[in-house]
Structure formats: structure tokens, C-alpha cells
Amino acid sequence: MLLGSFIIPEAGQDRPKFSRQSRKQVSEARLMEEVRHQLVMLSWYGVFDNLEYSVRGDTVILSGQVTRPTLKSDAEAQVKKLEEVGKVINNIEVLPLSPNDDRIRIAVYRAIFGSAGLDRYAMLAVPPIHIVVRNGHVTLTGVVSRNADKYEAEIRAKGVSGVFSVTNQLRVEQGE
């Protein structure tokens, strides 16, 4: 008898066995979703920060770049609160203070989100395009819905005065 995705054995038959590997994959996938939720909900997480993570068993490895030291510690604290987490390795980099980088961040933000077509990404609580600036070098991370948006964002960022280079790490959603 088939019920959902589980097979219920008839009387006298052996119960199906689920491998430890498949249970581990399900629990890691669930933990990844919980970690993602905790990071997105951080108070000071914004468009100029890039938080990434990976899960290995009950260990969560945090990485990325943030503009505030408190965001680094807040991210670790929130993830540690999760019941399934045994250990957190915090490899998040705090970007150096720089008035020039701050000016570039604002200018790139305006260039990208002020353009017709890309402005729709600015309407979300946490815009899916993140702008990381380190010593005049810009890295774009996140997700866009079309290839054209990916390249438009890069062109807009390259046009900002004072930008030395642009690394485009934007990913395109699966739909295209």
C-alpha cells in the first residue's frame, strides 16, 4: 500500500529500511533552511553584507563579509540557538572602515537600484543583490531572475567613479 512517499508493508512483510545517509541528508537540508531563516532575520543584515553558510552534520560554517562587527557576532549567536546545531565555525570577515568604500557602496546602490528594470529588486525587505566593497573593489552576490539583470547590474557598478574592479558572482534563478 502506498501512502505519500512511504511504503506501508502488508501484514507479514518486513518494514522498509531508511538508510542513515538519507536521514542525514534530510536533517542537513532542514538545518540549512533554519540557518538561512535565522540569518535573513538578523536586524542589521542588509544589502552591503554577504552572509554564506554550509552545514556538515551538526556543524554550521559561516562565511562572507559584513560591514559591522556586531553582525558577525549576532549571526553566530542566532545560529547557535538552533537546537540541531552542535558547533558553529565563524569565518565571517568584517570589512575595514573606509569612508571611500562607504561612498562607493552608496553610489553602486544608486546606480543598480535606481535603474529601470533593476529597481524592482530594491522593493524587497532584503534585496537579493548584495554589494560588497573592499578597498574600491566591488563584488556583486545574490540572485537575480534573468541573465540580462545580472549583466546590467555589473555594467552599472563598473560605471561608478572610484571603482577599481567589479566581480560579478550573481546567480540567475533556475527559471531561465
Notable traits:
176 residues, Histidine-containing Protein, Chain: A, 9 strands, disordered N terminus, alpha/beta, 2 domains
Q: Care to describe what's here?
A:
This protein has 176 residues and is α/β, with parallel strands linked by helices. The protein has helices spanning 20-40, 69-80, 99-113, 147-158; strands at 2-3, 6-7, 50-56, 59-66, 87-90, 93-94, 129-134, 137-144, 165-172. The strands form three sheets. Strands 3, 4, 5 and 6 form a four-stranded mixed sheet that branches. It has a three-stranded mixed sheet with strand order 7-8-9. A two-stranded antiparallel sheet has the order 1-2. Helix 3 crosses helix 4. The longest helix has 21 residues, at 20-40. The two termini are 39 Å apart.
CATH class division of the largest domain: Alpha Beta
Termini gap: 39 Å
CATH topology of the largest domain: Histidine-containing Protein, Chain: A
Unreliable residue stretches: 1-12, 15-23
- Strand residues, percent: 25-35%
Number of domains: 2
| Helicity, as a percent range | 25-40%
What is the gyration radius calculated from CA atoms? 21 Å
- Derived structural class: alpha/beta
Mean pLDDT: 86
Q: Which of globular, elongated, flat, extended, rod-shaped describes the shape?
A: globular
Q: How large is the count of helical segments? A: 4
Largest sheet: 4 strands, mixed
**β-strand number:** 9
Any idea what the CATH architecture of the largest domain is? 2-Layer Sandwich
Characterize this entry briefly.
The chain is an alpha/beta fold and 176 residues long. The protein is 34% helix and 27% strand. It has two domains: 20-94, Histidine-containing Protein, Chain: A (2-Layer Sandwich); 99-172, Histidine-containing Protein, Chain: A (2-Layer Sandwich).
